[in-house]
Amino acid sequence: QVQLVESGGGMVQAGGSLRLSCLASGRTFSSLTMGWFRRAPGNGREFVAAIRPNSGTTDYVASVKGRFTISRDNAKNTVYLQMNNLKPEDAAVYSCAAANTYALPLRLSRFDDWGQGTQVTVSS
């Protein structure tokens, strides 16, 4: 089992930026496919981005392409989500997740372990 702790959420004005971090422990981080998901009030969980262990393959939901960047530092057991040009519709609780294997596209990977989430609020 993987323990995941997110940080970096907060309140920002539309057009602003935030960087989320997710620190993993409990398994070999460098072997995990990592993902970010979000849930807005009244909505279901939505895939945002994912990255393979070697950072060579990423996947993004269309609505964040060109604005969000997922990356990882295997030496720090951390995955990041850089969010630029934030929009009010990006407001949600963002959670990271880990998968022991991957599928293509990465959003179809089986994510078994989840963090508690961090709140992102975007004011217009």
Question: Could you give a short description of this structure?
Answer:
With about 120 residues, the protein is mainly beta. It has strands at about 5, 10-15, 20-25, 35-40, 45-50, 60, 70-75, 80-85, 90-100, 115, 120-124. Strands 2, 4, 5, 6, 9, 10 and 11 form a seven-stranded mixed sheet that branches.
How do the helices and strands line up, and which of them pair or pack?
Layout: E1 3-7, E2 10-13, E3 18-25, E4 33-39, E5 45-51, E6 58-60, E7 68-73, E8 78-83, E9 92-99, E10 113-114, E11 118-123
Parallel strand pairs: 2-11
Antiparallel strand pairs: 1-3, 3-8, 4-5, 4-9, 5-6, 7-8, 9-10, 9-11
Can you walk through the features of this model?
- The structure is a single chain.
- The chain is mostly beta strands and 124 residues long.
- The protein has no helices and eleven strands.
- Strands 2, 4, 5, 6, 9, 10 and 11 form a seven-stranded mixed β-sheet that branches.
- The mean pLDDT is 96.
